[in-house]
Structures
1.
Amino acid sequence: MGIVAFDVRKDEIPYFRKYSTIFGLDIMMVKESLTSDNIGKIVDGDSISIIGHSKINAQILTSLSKKNVRHISTRTVGINHIDVEAAQHLNIKITNSYYGPDCVAEFTIMLILMSLRKYKAAMFRGNINDYSLEGLKGKELSACTVGIIGTGAIGTAVMHILHGFKTKILAYSPTGKEKEELKSYVEYVDLDTLYEQSDIISLHIPYLPDTKHLINIVALDKMKKGVMLVNTSRGELMDISSIIHAIETQKIGALALDVFESEQDIYHHDRKLDIISNRDMAYLRQFPNVVMTQHMAFYTENAVESMVKYSLQSFISNTCNQS
Ligand code: COI
């Protein structure tokens, strides 16, 4: 079976070599994302591996279907870059990959701690030999109530770590499922209660049509003044104009974002010398209480190996991984 892997980063290549040998797969690696310009690299009946940068819309899917592509495996956990419904109509199988939740969970905790201890401002000061303390007084996690939206693998891993900090933890489960093993230290609440009572709110839900812009002006109105918001899930969960207004009016006390709406073609690329078109991203980045990272919460040795391994394994076992 022929496989064309798109969006292949240098650091993934050793894992592609390792697992194509183990699974006996013939793989062509392509650095660029899959677009209508390079679709010619695919030959009749190939399968495809991609990452979140390739936008697999109905038009691309139709072209792939004409080339008898029957399986697209994304090396990500999230599948919001693929028009899954169109794929189903065209009888193209979509599988996602798997990696353990600790990479994102630990990064989330890092963002919370950086924000609580005002480390962005402290780090910038240190770089110019300014060792003053004024304005850097922080808070301890044990003094905070943290609200976790989404209680899947990552949300649960975040709560496990937070438990060690003696934090009060509130959780909202969109599916209504409650995990018995969490109940000794987590209080399940409805979304409004979580908004009203949390000092810190962290998002761990997928981007779906009904979660788009969940954090909007209405939700923000229900939150405490000075709330900290953390998003390591998907930028589309936040209505960015409401977020900007809430930062400007100091309703939000701290914001930590590893993801951003319309981050595609910016994050994971070197854009130092380019004119970047995402104004909101540039505007928000300058605030001392806003920490922004380039969608890298997943980016650990274990996770990258796992993303390649399970993507390739799906071509031989036809499995779909869910976190
Ligand atoms: C995912 O696996 O869903 C991620 O967010 C990782 C990223 C490479 C898109």
2.
Amino acid sequence: MHAPSGVSERIALGRCNAVVGLQWGDEGKGKYVDLLAGSHDAVVRYNGGANAGHSVVVGGERFSLHLVPSGILSPGRLSVIANGVVVDPETLIAELDGLRGRGVDTSGLVLSDRAHLVMPYHKVEDALREELLRTMRQGGPEEGRLTEIGTTRRGIGPAYADKVLRTAAIRTGDLLRPEVLRERLELACWAKSAMLAPLGDPGSPTRFDAKELAAKASSWGSRLAPMMRDTTCLLHSLLAQGRRVLFEGANGTLLDVDHGTYPFVTASSTGVGGIGPGAGIPPRALETVIGVVKAYSTRVGGGPMPTELHDPRAQYIRERGREYGTTTGRPRRVGWLDLVAVRYACMINGVSMLAVTLLDVLAGLDELEVCTHHEIDGERTDRFIPDATDLARARPVYARLPGFKADLGGVRQLSDLPAEARRYLDLVQEATQVRVGLVSVGPGREQTIVA
Ligand code: IMP
């Protein structure tokens, strides 16, 4: 596995950089993080948990990562899971074992001693809440009404909720403090059993035993202890030494708990705003923000998506783009590129450069549509509304562009792209007023154009 062809050297990067998704996740961030990792000393996850699914193809081999930063595939770098991530210890250990089994050196993994844990009861709680919401809407879904969120059921929301509720939350460092751990587990198991038992079907695991969990937790602790550190201190000392750090946002800006399509969002701050609380790095340290935008839109789970397609073109794009969830396998909802949403996400993140992905997927369509405005209650606007109830009323206003036929997989220069594909990229730049610096035309590291 070798470093790619000097992409980092050809784009202007600072010492402290971030890659974030500008849509509803699955933008292809993993590929760019992997490409840029080789020229950074550390790659850092600061939000989310095993709900994320980053696919990276190296040497024709596909790796699906959920908790481990994509930087793990670049030997000699630190891969940091910072305090803002919610860590499912079983998933993390299984992921590390899987990587080692495929010959990947995982010795660079560093885990914050203050990251909160996703416990088995969090996953049960997530699933039961979703079931409850699903049954509440029986009788027919109505646009804008409360339905299940369509979570990944990885326990992300309940783990963050317990973090904010404080008393029964467990952090990675607690795995190494048996007294603290026992006390917290007793409280958590009592509270979760009392709360969840009335919701569960007979036979589903809604009673939790503190002793049983303590035994499991102690084995997680022994495995994870050598990786645990104060990651805030580590990152500050790297930056003070002039080393380069890359922050890898998980999920996507439109799923941000504050700035996304609430309540159909995830439970963390997915944009660069999450780096402060999630890794202890002050906002002013950040120099370059690379915003990753897929050439069309996808969304998994519920919530409004103004440009969603319900015709054969959706299936065409879904199959060509392999648009099935990395974490859950669910078919993703597919639609045209929504520049109202992307422009908003650029603003929220202070994006310095756009990195477009999956442009090759659009080849073969006669006409391409791009949403330039929303129309709400008969009024045209270029303002994105980060609220599910109001956004459900938005209708897309499209610009229509001619499609392109050629297979883009072998293109390495912007000038070799068909004129129609270049026009498409120009429109993205015009609408966002942000330069397109990178274009991906296939999953391989080499299938990347530096614009
Ligand atoms: P949760 O993060 O599992 O609570 O799910 C909340 C919403 O975010 C659901 O609609 C999920 O499908 C979506 N989601 C969470 N993580 C990702 C991701 O990495 N890619 C795409 N969608 C995600």
